[in-house]
Amino acid sequence: MELSELSLSHFRNYDQTDLHFQSGINVFLGENAQGKTNLLESIYALALARSHRTKTDKDLIQWGQKEAKIAGRIKNRFGQTPLSLSWSAKGKQARVNHLDQSRLSTYIGQLNVILFAPEDLDLVKGAPTVRRRFIDIEFGQMNKLYLQQSSQYKKILKDRNAYLKAWAQGGQRDQIFLDVLTEQLIDVASQIILARQKFLIKLEAQANQIHQEVASQKEVLTLHYQTAIPVEEGMQKDQVQEALSLVFEKNADREKRQGTTLAGPHRDDFIIDVNQANVAVFGSQGQQRTAALALKLGEIELMHQETGEYPVLLLDDVLSELDANRQTHLLMAIQDKVQTFITAPSLTEVARQLIKEPKIFIVKAGHVQVEE
Q: Is 32 annotated to bind ligand?
């Protein structure tokens, strides 16, 4: 899979920009605050119908304008497909092959991307919400059913939390209605938990192989899903539902007092172990960065395994954050395999030695020129 063309209209600091990319490595060079990351953000948004930098869509619209639009053309083994995404006062509109998409779940997955930015090095030691978001975004691109289940879970959770909050504040207290919401939540939660568990098992297989290569075969990486119930490989949905039901029964009084749902996928996490020790707690900074790199590169291989296509890789100023050894493993892993977009003030010495014939774009004040 690759992105061959990109057009921006009133997006961030870009007035009107049309770009053509090569299938290998494309590099955006320029000083800070010139618009390099905005270009990667536009590709990410074209793929996932959302920014990774803001939750407010109006932030994406160029100052003084009423509408922003991103359009692109993707190539995969089935042919070429135009995509577009626009934001205006009327809301967000996504199109595939010039046809409006009424649901984003039918849009997401047309273009698969993996973003690797300096903050992703905190994937290992960051808060649980960072790792939950990692699973939801990456697995959601590979599996439309999971994407739909995740959306359904969030809706039921919102309704249940609103009712529990009202209960805690002395409002309406209908136990039968609360039980219905709980049953609905448990049904979807059980499916999400099992899907995440399977995803992490597959990701571990890919990431551990890469981690061992970077660590000279001296370290083994394992992933452990943490949820309110013990989950083992091979568990069935009804077993997970039964275990969750017991947890909700145990938490019932506390939830009514605190006005919120205390267990479920929205509170889950996964632990990254290196040589059977939690690398976030006991690992060195080098081990933590190796683990984060292994997870990101493992995603690439897993996405290819699950979808039959390699994703587009976005490296936002991340090379300067990695030492020469990790830069080398990263660039060797993607060379001649994954279409890649790199942003940097300048290319590192390692990158210049390893990257074969990159297409270089010079970015300055929202204008882009191809380096001759």
A: yes
